[in-house]
Amino acid sequence: MFKASVQRQVRLGNVARQFSTVSLTRTAGSKPLAVLRQTASQSALWRLAPRHAIFRLYSAESAAAQANRRAEFAPVASSPVSRFSELDKLGVHERLIEALTKGMGYDAMTEVQSMAINPALKGTDMVAQAKTGTGKTLAFLVPLFQRVLMDQPNLADRWAVRRSSSQDIRAIILSPTRELAEQIGVEARKLARSTGIVVQTAVGGTRKREALQKMWHEGCDVLVATPGRLNDLLSDPHARVAAPNLRAFVLDEADRMLDVGFADEIRSIQEALPDRKAVERQTLLFSATIPRDVVHLAKSMVRPDNFEFVQTIKADDEPTHERVPQHLVVVNGLENVFPTIIEIAQKAKLAEDSGLPFKAIVFFSTTASVQFATQVFRKTPSLSRRSGIETFEIHSRLTQATRTRSADYFRQAKSAVLFSSDVTARGMDFPNVTDVIQVGLPPDRDQYIHRIGRTGRAGSSGKGWLILTKEEVPEARNRLPGLPIKPNDTLKAAKHVLGENSTFDDVARYFSEVRDAYATVRKSDFRAVYLATLGQKFGRHFQADDVISMLNKWCLDGLGWTEVPAIPPKIAQQRALSRVPGVRIGYDDEDDEPVSRGFGERSGFGERSGFGNRSGYGNRSGFGDRSGFGNRSGFGDRSGGDRSGSRSMFGQNNQRGRTGNRGRGGSNRNSFEDRFSSRADGRSQAPKRASF
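User: That's the sequence. What structure does it adopt?
Assistant: Structure tokens below.
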């Protein structure tokens, strides 16, 4: 018995010696992350350690003591680091620190980065509540890259001989939109520049074959992807994309992924990844809000006994939508919308000496409206390139390459206007945006808030504008309760009545510019806007007959048409428009004549729902983006989805019991969810009354 025990001790001692000579690869999943050079020092420590200490490793007590002794030699920061140059105290590899400080020029961390990086480098799973525009991309890239280097030390050498493979991906970052994924990919490649780590992106809206050939040729260590495309790649055996040794998994903007219906894809992706019991990985989940469905998602993905909840939003931290001044501009009619936007831009240009150059995002709720507005404004002298203000557009009908190019140009522009659908409402980082202009009814309160969040980022100043017709105001009060929106009557173009002489020369010029520009737009483009408008979700205080009346008045009196656009019978039936007064059922001949036949003195332009409420309301009735009748939701590569249809995938009602908490008992549920008790979720506390 004693002899057998001694032999066992010797065997364990040999194992311990062997363990000391290998890299930290085998412990990266469960041990705190440390610099690669620590391996050598630990090996020396093991060689110098007393033999009896090694022999006693089989004992639970001595193993724990030995772990404590090893921890003493691990880099430990006495307090959370706040500068990237200090990351060596947390064991971050010098190549990454060099890339951050010298290559990317970063010095001090943002508060979010410090709060998230410090615990994430311990190797535990993490759920972090963090607002966009606070530097959270680096907050998950740094620990993710460190983990990859710990898993594969040879990647620290950029010129090391190693063949990366698309079938051995070590880290995956999941993003809800193409634009955000591309943005993350750019930052990741900068961080990887001084290492051998290969970063690839896989997003919808791009040619799948070309992306695969790039991955096959170059390999892939870190993959940044959208849920739809990643699920496609992992489920396609011909794609030759796999992650059998996945060490890190990041979900960015988790609440948005669920909002736009990606729950099914996320579940399928989880099933395609290796079992965490066989291959241990770190999961980092970031979300701006922590509603119940995000809690259920987190419960299905993180280790309940080994995760940290990082609350980067302070209890007294004033949200952007409460801090940024917001103005409600009520216009006389649709014909006043575009001149009002020009007036906002011109007044901001005059005030540039006392602040940042005018840089605005103008949100419309349909893709047709974005296209239409872009065509018009590019012909107006006040917003042309010669005026010093550049114009760009982003919406789901553009190719991914074009959308990426527009986003990059807008970021780099000093003074510019971006016309956009809701694909940029969340996650996208555009610096120095001074104004966010929302035209027409927002889909709901949440989307209004997300749009406003494009300005006033990282503590900077900004303004919000909401342009509505008087018919839309009652419904806006119903949709936007408790927001600090204040009426603004200072814009003269908003109240101007066409046909009357204006006492303000500038106002007359704004209307004249739009009239001339609008006359160049094709009639087919206006028809698309007209149909997209009628594909919106109406409301208790805003009905179809209101919209028809507004549009028809605009067409007949403003544009000089002899009849309003026809609505195909099937669409009229689907949208219950057949008996609405003023609706013309039938078909129009397609042509490319200018939309205006002289632009009579009532001259309308703009189009409410073109600036109205898209909100994916059309996708159930044939008004989707693909049919030309509006943007099916405009949320990235999936273009929308049923927000509520898949939420139970991660909730209590999941009958298969894979990801929910069914059958686990109330006490276990609370033990997990209580960790999020301090979360700040404004959606669950929406006030009942509007401020305007």
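The chain has a mean pLDDT of 77.
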